[in-house]
Design brief:
Layout (H helix, E strand, L loop, with lengths): L17 H13 L2 E4 L6 H15 L4 E5 L3 H14 L7 E4 L5 H10 L2 E4 L1 H9 L8 E6 L10 H12 L4 E6 L6 H10 L4 E4 L14 E8 L3 H23 L13 H17 L5 H25 L2 H14 L4 H8 L1 H15 L5 H16 L5 E4 L3 H11 L7 E4 L13 H13 L4 E4 L14 E4 L6 H8 L8 E8 L3 H24 L4 H11 L13 E6 L6 H7 L4 E6 L6 E2 L4 E7 H10 L1 H12 L2 E7 L13 H13 L5 E4 L2 H16 L17 H9 L7 H11 L2 H6 L2 H5 L6 H12 L6
Parallel strand pairs: 1-6, 1-7, 2-4, 2-5, 3-4, 5-6, 8-13, 9-11, 9-12, 10-11, 12-13, 14-15, 17-18, 18-19
Antiparallel strand pairs: 14-16, 16-17
């Protein structure tokens, strides 16, 4: 066996694998890179090799390795100590469990720091550390670099402080949607993507087959009786909510938690928008809360069993004296019967048939391979604790739960020390089965296991891949997925399969790109950095309300060569800067006047209810807020606090029209340039021209935005001809493929049914 030879890599510590060395070379050559590769192909090894080359080239710099969990950070710490030929004390671990006073000296004396992102973020915000002396940041589990996660903040600050620094992002599963992958690349300033799959010729020798088996069970008749009772309650609540226009349909079968949360948001907005209190809306929000609880109860029944359901009902009983929703649902005849039947089944020790299958699977595994190691994944902590008790009644099964650090309900979390010790105990054979929640899904140094069991499928392709990747590392692996027929188990399974298939398709398309130049161009186009805002090459469209036409702000905006100002009667706000950003502009005097006569808050309600990113600009001398009118200072401060906290509308204060216009211009550029988006006219529906109304109508078709709407209208000449065109004709339009054409025709031809 050949090994990697490098002065900073310990002798005989890293096996020489061509695909890993190629990945290292490409990262060093092409810059900020995202490496996508299946679990167990050695992404950490690639990071170690890149680190060795950079430390040799820039010995005065340091390496930062980030991992989302403490145990994973510990694992990286050990791996870098194992692979790299530098003093072990210069490879340090920094997590939140280490006091800040101790972390700072560690940072200064270290060559390599393995850390959780939150600990680094805290020290960076406090100015205790700097990225100026960092030559490489490794972002492990890079798919997390979206939204408000710390990875995004840290990458932005790294680029600001150290423009020559290198970023290496690692993941086995970046996500099922191209948009998600693009977001990760944008947030981590990725220029280059390297993708390795099990089918690559240079990878095949190191990949072991994972056999997947599905075991399906039928729910017992008693379960179906409870389910029927719960659905009776759910249908009644949906009917009640539909009368108020909140529920779209009465189909309990396809009811998703996401739909209920969206409905909850609508009701809360309706409550806040009413000048007078409407008791019926408060009843609706309480009914919806009860519906959410019963929907979750059904999920537990279908996927977990009587023990979990009974525990959940017990918690609801405790809450019945505190919340109306809990009290209401327990007083309902159908739910009351369901609770009673659950308690009886608990007494009879009737459990989910998946438990019996799990017991049989484990007994068979340990009978055939007594030294086997098994991971059993279950989403719920109380279920994990229950399974631990049940499984340990069998002498051949030595089960131990493995959960996260936070304590929830009555179940105390595991400390980092306990987690590490449990993994060591599995390695040594003290346990042969770990019963894991999601904490074991991401990259932990769990030893090679012979079998992974899903007690329930998960709808996430990322989590499915991570769970499955715990086996098949050193030899052929095996995965068994337990499913209850005609339940959300099946729905979740097929959802994850579809998402994984889509992810692989997206990655294959990326991999097939002709050249790195095309890839880099695509990635850089999607990035929106502060520097890009200063460019004045592309046209920026700003819609202005007609009432603002007389203001000098419109004239100031028109002075910009690349700004097209369109004055319209807008339904919301004074300025529309993008699909998502609408600005309400007020002078200090107007702000105070509208606060007194109530206009301010009605405008805020409309903005927050109908706009994703509302913004208010108050123009003038800030001190005049408290002197211009005879209004108590506390009342003004209270109004400002309410705007930001209750209505969640950010406020900019500007000193002059020019400063206001500067903000409007920069925000519009930020929102529009580099994103390939036009402003949707559907934001403001009043005062549109005929052509704009035509565009407005065509935009209502599935997957049709402003650009495609214009393409269709230019192609066919009228709305009528667009709606009359068959699939073949639609596909002749630029950027309209077979899928979109079918979606359009399906909607147009679909028979209307009044729900």
């Amino acid at each position: 066996m050949a090994f990697v030879n490098h002065p900073l890599i310990k002798k005989n510590s890293i096996e020489s694998r061509i695909y890993q060395e190629v990945l290292v070379a490409r990262v060093l050559e092409k810059g900020n890179s995202l490496v996508v590769a299946p679990t167990a192909l050695g992404k950490t090894v690639v990071a170690s090799m890149v680190s060795a080359f950079l430390l040799q080239k820039k010995p005065e710099k340091k390496i930062l390795v980030l991992a989302p969990t403490k145990p994973l950070a510990v694992q990286h710490h050990k791996s870098f100590q194992k692979f790299l030929n530098i003093p072990e004390e210069e490879i340090t671990l920094m997590t939140g469990t280490i006091p800040s006073k101790k972390r700072i000296p560690l940072w200064g004396s270290s060559k390599i720091v393995s850390a959780t992102p939150q600990s680094i973020e805290n020290d960076l915000l406090q100015g205790k550390i700097s990225f100026k002396d960092v030559s490489l940041i490794v972002f492990d589990e890079a798919h997390r670099a979206v939204g408000d996660y710390s990875y995004v903040f840290l990458a932005q600050n790294y680029i600001k402080q150290n423009s020559n620094g290198l970023i290496l992002a690692l993941t086995a599963s970046p996500g099922g949607k191209k948009e998600k992958i693009d977001d990760v690349c944008k947030n981590l300033f990725i220029k280059n993507i390297e993708i390795k799959s099990e089918k690559d010729a240079d990878v095949k020798p190191y990949v072991h087959e994972i056999e997947t088996t599905w075991i399906k069970v039928n729910l017992p008749s008693e379960f179906l009786e409870i389910k029927s009772l719960l659905r009776t309650f759910m249908k009644e609540q949906l009917l009640f909510l539909k009368k108020f226009g909140f529920a779209r349909n009465l189909s309990v079968q396809y009811l998703r938690r996401k739909d209920l949360i969206e409905m909850q948001s609508k009701i809360r907005k309706a409550i806040s928008s009413k000048a007078e209190k409407n008791p019926a809306l408060y009843t609706a929000i309480s009914r919806l809360a009860a519906l959410l609880k019963v929907s979750h109860a059904e999920l537990l029944l279908e996927t977990q069993g009587i023990n979990s359901l009974n525990d959940y009902f017990s918690r609801i009983k405790k809450d019945s004296g505190k919340t109306k929703a809990a009290k209401f649902l327990l007083s309902h005849e159908a739910v009351s019967k369901a609770v009673s039947l659950t308690e009886k089944l608990k007494e009879k020790k009737v459990e989910h048939p998946k438990l019996l299958e799990l017991i049989n699977v484990l007994k068979k595994q340990f009978s055939e391979k007594p030294k086997s190691k098994v991971l059993v994944f279950n989403h719920y902590r109380d279920s994990v604790s229950f399974l631990e008790k049940q499984l340990n009644t069998f002498p051949e099964i030595k089960a131990k739960k493995f959960i996260g650090q936070a304590s929830k309900e009555k179940i105390k979390g595991m400390t980092q020390k306990e987690q590490i010790q449990t993994i060591e105990d599995l390695k040594e054979g003290k346990y042969n089965a770990l019963l894991c929640t999601s904490v074991a899904e991401e990259g932990l140094d769990i030893p090679e296991v012979d079998l992974v069991v899903f007690f329930e499928p998960v709808p996430s392709e990322i989590r499915t891949i991570q769970r499955r990747g715990r086996t098949g590392r050193l030899s052929k692996g095996k995965t068994i997925i337990l499913m209850a027929k005609a339940t959300r188990d099946e729905a979740f399974y097929w959802s994850s399969i579809a998402k994984e298939r889509k992810m692989k398709s997206v990655l294959n398309k990326m991999k097939a790109m002709d050249s790195n130049e095309n890839l880099e161009s695509r990635k850089m186009d999607s990035q929106t950095t502060l520097n890009s805002f200063s460019s004045e090459k592309d046209l920026v469209m700003i819609f202005v309300d007609s009432r603002e036409q007389a203001s000098s702000a419109v004239r100031e905006l028109s002075k910009f060569d690349n700004v097209a100002v369109k004055v319209k009667q807008l339904e919301l706000g004074d300025y529309v800067l993008s699909d998502e950003v609408i600005v309400e502009r007020k002078t200090v005097e107007d702000f105070l006047s509208s606060m007194l006569d109530g206009r301010l808050f009605s405008q805020l309600i409309d903005l927050s209810a109908n706009c994703k990113k509302p913004l208010m600009i108050v123009e003038g001398k800030k001190e005049e807020l408290f002197t211009l009118r005879n209004i108590h200072e506390n009342a003004i401060k209270g109004a400002l606090s309410s705007i930001m906290l209750d209505y969640q509308v950010p406020i900019f204060f500007t000193d002059s029209v020019k400063e206001t216009v500067s903000f409007l211009y920069l925000i519009a550029k930020r929102e529009q340039l580099g994103k390939g988006k036009e402003i949707r006219l559907r934001i403001g529906r009043k005062g549109l021209s005929d052509s704009e109304l035509q565009q407005f109508v065509v935009e209502s078709l599935p997957s049709i935005g402003p650009t495609l709407a214009k393409n269709l209208l230019r192609k066919f000449g009228s709305v009528k001809k667009v709606f009359s065109a068959d699939e073949k004709k639609l596909m002749k339009t630029d950027k309209i493929g077979e899928k979109k054409a079918k979606e359009i025709r399906k909607l147009i031809e679909l028979e209307y049914k009044d729900d």
